[in-house]
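Structure in, sequence out. Go:
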């Protein structure tokens, strides 16, 4: 996630509106409950927070779990900056929850992830993950480093065996920008003795500007998005593991990395019609997953080339398909067409790719960077979208009935009087029992627990 992206939103009856077209109900296929978090219309208007931190609907309350610069209870140093992607896991200790949280730190980060013996990949890199153990009342029992010495840890995704795959959104090599090792990998992060962290990168899964991943729970295939910043932009990948669904550590056995080819469609931005379906999707072996000489997106994929897309972001599994997001496309930056955000569905059994939803443009407000970013499926149904850009920042909810509602507004001003700015939201996730929504504020780095009358 970068600070220039923002959900396409405007003021409305409930303080928010998102312009989109397509079958929104498609996004909720296969979720645990069909009715959707937020019911048909959400939870009502946001109530201003007298403390000036987080506005929420009536009946909801927040708790600050962690903030950049605070002392880590583990004694390892300070809470790092740039809180980003995150996932929640159940604990064997009754009612406890583990949060594993990314820190999208580059070399100029304000507060680096502290280096810890046995948990550090590159001692010259400032990114990584931290983990928090919470009791049933969201009291922080422990907070510590989960992995250090990585870079630009943006998003990722949970594994079927309850580990977190953290993704580096960079591709600097050793000797560049002060790094002592190559970067652009995925790492498997644990949070307990039963699920330890490995500081060895999952090299077979590719070295590129990773964003997010999602597992096919039926066969262990892993889908990966690439958020490349420069033309010709990123690819959509799948990883065929040598030991599918082998459990913790099995991804280190290797596998085959492939890139998606949509015949006769070199750039997904040209597709503008929701419901448009492409059959016969092909998967082409990536010639050099380690990108020793040439970035994976620029390698030779033979006759027919390969299919690119600008700003590939969120990735998740729902029902029998994998969904992924293209935040935006701009002809001025090299895309073949403009759009304000797409959500795509790939059905592996049918080998079909379908454009499910197109966002915007909103007719009332069109500011640079107003596009959807990562999206989160609530365990009980519904969709949460984190706003990311300049100005006021929100978490918006979308119901399967097409209603859009505000769930939270960040009131922590991180800008100046002349140029106000609010830190983006990131890492929205829910507790295993669906009673709490956890969310990060990117800057100032803050992790919240939000409880209230959730509709399930």
């Amino acid at each position: 996630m970068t600070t220039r992206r923002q959900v396409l939103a405007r003021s409305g009856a409930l303080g928010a509106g998102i312009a989109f077209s397509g079958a929104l109900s498609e996004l909720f296929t296969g979720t645990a409950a069909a009715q959707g978090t937020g019911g048909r219309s959400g939870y009502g208007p946001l109530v201003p927070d007298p403390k000036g931190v987080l506005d929420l609907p009536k009946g909801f309350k927040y708790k600050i779990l962690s903030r950049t610069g605070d002392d880590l209870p583990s004694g390892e140093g300070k809470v790092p900056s740039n809180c980003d992607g995150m996932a929640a896991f159940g604990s064997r200790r009754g009612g406890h929850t583990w949060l594993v949280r990314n820190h999208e730190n580059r070399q100029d980060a304000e507060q680096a992830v502290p280096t810890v013996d046995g948990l550090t990949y590159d001692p010259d890199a400032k990114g990584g993950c931290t983990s928090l153990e919470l009791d049933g009342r969201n009291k922080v029992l422990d907070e510590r480093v989960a992995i250090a010495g990585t870079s630009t840890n943006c998003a990722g995704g949970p594994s079927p065996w309850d580990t977190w795959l953290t993704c580096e959104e960079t591709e600097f090599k050793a000797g560049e920008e002060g790094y002592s090792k190559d970067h652009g990998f995925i790492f498997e992060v644990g949070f307990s003795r039963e699920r330890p962290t490995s500081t060895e990168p999952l090299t077979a899964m590719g070295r590129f500007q990773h964003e997010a991943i999602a597992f096919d729970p039926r066969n262990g295939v892993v889908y990966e998005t690439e958020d490349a910043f420069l033309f010709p932009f990123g690819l959509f990948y799948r990883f065929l593991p040598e030991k599918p669904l082998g459990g913790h550590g099995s991804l280190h056995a290797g596998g085959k990395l492939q890139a998606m080819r949509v015949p006769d469609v070199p750039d997904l931005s040209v597709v503008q019609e929701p419901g448009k379906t492409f059959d016969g999707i092909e998967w082409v072996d990536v010639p050099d997953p380690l990108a020793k000489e040439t970035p994976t997106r620029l390698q030779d994929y033979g006759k027919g080339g390969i299919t690119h897309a600008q700003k590939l972001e969120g990735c998740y599994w729902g029902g029998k398909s994998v969904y992924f997001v293209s935040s935006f496309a701009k002809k001025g930056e090299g895309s073949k067409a403009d759009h304000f955000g797409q959500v795509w569905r790939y059905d592996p059994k049918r080998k079909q790719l379908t454009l499910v939803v197109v966002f915007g443009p909103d007719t009332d407000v069109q500011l640079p960077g107003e596009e959807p970013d990562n999206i989160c499926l609530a365990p009980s149904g519904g969709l949460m979208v984190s706003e990311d850009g300049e100005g006021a920042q929100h978490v918006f909810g979308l119901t399967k009935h097409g209603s859009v509602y505000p769930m939270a507004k960040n009131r922590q001003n991180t800008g100046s009087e002349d140029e106000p700015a609010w830190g983006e939201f990131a890492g929205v996730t829910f507790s295993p029992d669906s009673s709490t929504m956890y969310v990060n504020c990117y800057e100032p780095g803050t992790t919240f627990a939000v409880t209230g009358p959730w509709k399930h």
